[in-house]
């Protein structure tokens, strides 16, 4: 297959500061999605035509650094929404005055930290994946900026921020069970969509800080910097030598052998489900040593109804349907199987969670959380 260079895809990188009128990087078309592997970072430039026949159904805007400065009050500290491995994310505002044809809206602008560990490849991955994949449970990419070494991404703004902030923020009120289940279902639908694409996509970095929430708690996946095209043909996995992702969320076969598959995403999904059930972070050094790894501590109790109350988030104060919780716990247990084969597909996860959304069950009475003291 011919390689398409990123230079041909993103022409403005080479015409910094000049007005590139080619704002519409991608156009609606019925051709197959361009894979990350089709795009070479180093090979020589090739026709922009290749791109227009490869990007499917999206319109990306090219911004200048100046425009994004304007949109974010000069990347002011007070506009900062969060920060991950790529760099800081700022709230901004764009409209027709900034770019012709652009809808007036709040945006999130992610700026590459030039001193950081990530770089051009992750930036490009976000454009290749999010620029082409459109779904109600994936965050919308509006555009990008590429000037000299600067790399930025502009997304729709998600008013409730990340699940990490909502679930673990110290002074926030507890998230009700129904909201947790709505988020679990939305995120599962996003992952299922990626896994079932014509060319399956492995998300690779599924975790609470990459799940963003709309005002009504609709979950959307963001941060495709580490996403990867899935195996082709009969292959069950792709093998990688560099293990990337986040400690605690990565599947055992990926950490140990570099085997990456859609089932490794299912494991990470199971970790997030466990965090939703327990209200605890997957890794927390401040916890007692036997509870430090949430999976090792919680997994054995997930299939035992009598022990389930040890696992459930005490901040729920018992306000959850017992039958529903038992089913979600069993599903979590399956997702967290050490061996990838018994893990369910994300489609199966969606089906199970859909059957639980309006679970008509009596809520059990508030219970007192009893911390079992270790007797020596
Ligand atoms: N579209 C957005 N709307 C609101 N907050 C966002 C948005 N995108 C990112 N954030 C915030 O910034 C954090 C880091 O963003 P992310 O895309 O995960 O960056 P990284 O690739 O560096 O991990 C998120 O956890 C979230 O708190
Ligand atoms: Mg992130």
UniProtKB/TrEMBL annotation:
PROSITE patterns: PROTEIN_KINASE_DOM, PROTEIN_KINASE_ST. It holds the Pfam family PK_Tyr_Ser-Thr. It is an enzyme of class 2 (transferase). Residues 75-364 form the Protein kinase domain. It comes from the Eukaryota. Transmembrane segments: none annotated. Its EC number is 2.7.11.1. Signal peptide: none annotated. Coiled coil: none annotated. GO terms for molecular function: ATP binding; protein serine/threonine kinase activity. Belongs to the protein kinase superfamily. Ser/Thr protein kinase family. May be involved in plant defense signaling. This is non-specific serine/threonine protein kinase. The gene is LOC107470675.
